[in-house]
Write a structure and sequence with these properties.
By secondary structure, the protein is an alpha/beta fold. It contains eleven helices and four strands; from the N terminus they run E-H-H-E-H-H-H-H-E-H-E-H-H-H-H. It has a four-stranded parallel β-sheet with strand order 2-1-3-4. Helix 3 runs antiparallel to helix 4, helix 8 packs across helix 9 and helix 8 packs parallel to helix 11. The chain starts with a strand and ends with a helix.
Amino acid sequence: MKLLLDTCVLYPTVMREMLLGAARLGHFTPLWSARILGEWQRAALKLGPAGAAQAESETALARANWPNAEVAPSPGTEARLWLPDSADIHVLAAAIAGHADGIVTLNNKDFPRHTLAEEGLQRFGPDEILYRFWLEDGAGMEMLGAKVLAEANRLSGGGWEIRPLLKKARLPRLAKALAD
C-alpha cells in the first residue's frame, strides 16, 4: 500500500517516527512531494534556528531512506482538482502522481472522502492507520513504540511513558493499544 503523508503528520516528531517506523516495518510505502517537505521545514522555523536545522537534516534523512518516495505532480493536474482549501490541492495532486492508495492527514475537512474517492484515494488519520497496523502486527508495532519512547526519553531527559507520549502526539487509540 502506498500512502502520501501530509505535512501535518510529518512535522510532529513522535507521529512522524511512528509512521515512518511502520513504513520501515513494511506496512506501507511512504510518499511525499518536495513541497510537502518544504512545508515541514518552514513549520519547523517556529522553533528557531535549531528547529529549522533539525527539520532540514530530518528531511534529508527521509529522502535518503526512501529515495523513491518523492513524487512530483504532472503538469496540469492541480488545475483540474478541487478541495475545500485550495492550498491543499498540491497534496492531492502528489497522491495522484504517486499512484497512492490514500492520504494520511489530520485535516479531515480539507480532504473530503467523496472527493478523494473520485480519484481512487482513501483518507486515513494517523491514529487510525497506525492502530490498523498494530492489529496486523502487534509485536512489530510494540517494538516500534518502545523505540520511539526510548528516543523521546533520551531527548527529553526521561519521564515519559508510552500512553501519555502517544496521546500527546494525537495517537490515542494506538496509545491505549500499546499501553495495555
